[in-house]
Amino acid sequence: MSEPHRPTCPSWRLGACRRAFALHRPWQRRPCLSIHPRHLTITVGDADDAMNHARRREIMLRQCRLRSCSMNNGFFTGTNCEVCNDEGKFIMSDREANSVGRILALVLRHAPEKFNVDMDINGWVETRELSKAIADSRRHLHWVRAWHFEAIANADEKGRWQVENEMIRATYGHSIEIELDLPTDDIPEALYWPCEASEVESLLKFGILSGDRKHIHLSRTIENALEAGHVRIGRPSIIEVDTIRAIADGHTIYRAGTTVFLTDEVPPTALYPVGEDDPIVQETFARWDEEE
Predict the structure, then answer these.
(1) Cys-Cys crosslink for 274: which of 13, 157, 238, 259, Cβ 3.0 to 4.6 Å?
(2) What are the tens digits of pLDDT across the range 196-250?
(3) How far is CA 282 from CA 197, 224, 241, in A?
(4) pTM (2 d.p.)
(5) What is the rounded radius of gyration, in angstroms, for the C-alpha atoms of the chain?
(6) 104: Cβ contacts below 8 Å, ≥ 6 apart
(7) Which tops the pLDDT comparison, 187 or 12?
(8) Distance between the two ends of the chain, CA-based, in angstroms?
(9) Domains recognised in the chain with CATH numbers
(10) Which of 207, 216, 205, 209 is CA-nearest to residue 254?
């Protein structure tokens, strides 16, 4: 393998090409190959084979090539489609998807002004405007196009992003003020909220109020709530929310992501503690202990 053409290659000057050669990651040298094919001593065909082989070994965001496969509009994360087992067409690496996802979270949940994009009152942003803003401000993401957002949104198991009519928005997690127009039907009879053990008594007395976020984020299952709370609490206690009682008391509950529901307040009359002797709680804690 020859040394890259240092004087004129912008990827080399930025360090991306240099890191790719050092780490022997041919799939990350794609932008450099398009400018300087002589960076590799192997033929173009061999280079493509090397890239494809490397991609197959990695967890990638892909699109199923079979039109009959309609799961998530054909987008999936992994090596093969779970429905038809098709290897799929490469869209972006897991690292690239995470990088774009972090920017989506920043722009669509917290600070659209940092990328100079216009957001409407319901949190929608034009995909073309956003893709251009990302490409202009992040050189390593110069390749991002509007359709990449569709791929990320469809493959996301949590349903964090919604793409419609060339617009995209976050379905939950906002710290900025927006007006929710999310669906309010098909709300489960019980939802769940993670909290510190020391907070349980106070919450049962005064109810749940929104904090830094604009809305309270409730989880579909006990396990979902445990995983959500595990990030900041460690071993959270779980409170069950009687949604029928909460709605009857005048509180609207919105269906956001696949496992997340939003509301502005939960009255204490709709709250019940879930004991640590609950089988799901015990099983989850045991799994965490094994992982540690």
Answers:
(1) 238
(2) 999 999 999 999 987 666 789 999 999 999 999 998 888 999 999 999 999 999 9
(3) 15, 14, 20
(4) 0.68
(5) 23
(6) 149, 152, 161, 168, 170
(7) 187
(8) 41
(9) 190-291 (3.20.170.30)
(10) 216
